[in-house]
């Protein structure tokens, strides 16, 4: 989807819908703006239900201050204006009060973006702006002063967050990623002290010494592949909606009968993926003109080594990841469903996805369908798309239940005898 070809009012509607729909703002809180080519600022209106905005509700403020539209601009317009004045490279601003970021805002702390590999690069350095009255010029100056230092993501004391971008989609991704970091850190701190990635580990990822893939032009697309592409898109969107994926992260693949496989592209927004965006990988080559997800070699080796696996997902949902960034293990002996789908759930070292592809791929035997990678991700395998998706969802829900149980009492695990009964009854 070419988001840059959408009118500013439509971009704002699309993103507001997304932010409100995923519980990242309330009806009255939060505002978005875009600075267009004529230096006009398009912004959400004051006092209109964020859950029911229409295109004609979006307000346009001309460079001379004239307001065009049916409403007043957001009461926070002053800080949007001052951010654009301070940073000519920014063309979009997202402001909201999502609960997890408000938790950090009211204890005046900044969420850590060093728990997983990509968050620091997406959000950049995070700043904190001093409290001032909402809508005041003083608040605008406090925020703009932090942006002026080249920072794109700014926490507001006792208020929320403001994020800028070169377009609204970049600003949204930064906002969503920072909110994800906040949710992850809150989850992790409920069970331990989260470990941060070291500079050396960050450098190791940047190295990117994966072998390059060749290219090929598919001669045709069979009905098997077309059905897989369609069903993958449905489940990728569902993964996003269930917050198992974020907009740019979450890898899904499925094997085709001839041994080739179809995989998500690198970087594209998971919310809007279409069948044509997915990438076929055959032998050592990818469909011409497309870039597959970076873990493509691991997917390939898993399929080569394990005929019983036809689908692989790599994701980093915020409850399972609490176990990836702390020293706690995710013990699936909680309820029968969890044990049946997850089994042992071992933890692999941080670089398992990048370095030892061979050793990592070999781990996914029938009694190890899922593994957590320290400070990185969870790798889920399945006999088909739905089985892999179900397993990921069960893992995330199980992790969530364990995190919540912490304040209720000690967890009573299912005993060895009952586990044996489960293994016999469900032919595990
Ligand atoms: Zn606000």
Number of strands: 17
Q: In terms of per-residue confidence, which ranges show pLDDT below 50 for 5 or more consecutive residues? A: none
Instruction: Output the strand order for the largest sheet.
Output: 9-13-12-11-10-14-17-16-15
Rg, nearest Å = 23 Å
Give the proportion of residues in helices: 25-40%
Give every kind of bound small molecule, once each.
Answer: zinc ion
Number of helices: 14
Name of the top-level CATH class of the largest domain: Alpha Beta
Number of domains: 2
Ends apart, CA distance between termini: 43 Å
Strand content: 15-25%
User: How would you state the average pLDDT, rounded?
Assistant: 94
Largest sheet: 9 strands, mixed
- CATH topology category name of the largest domain: L-fuculose-1-phosphate Aldolase
Structural class by sheet pairing and helices: alpha+beta
CATH architecture name of the largest domain: 3-Layer(aba) Sandwich
Question: What does the overall shape look like?
Answer: globular
What is the assigned CATH homologous superfamily of the largest domain?
Answer: Class II aldolase/adducin N-terminal domain
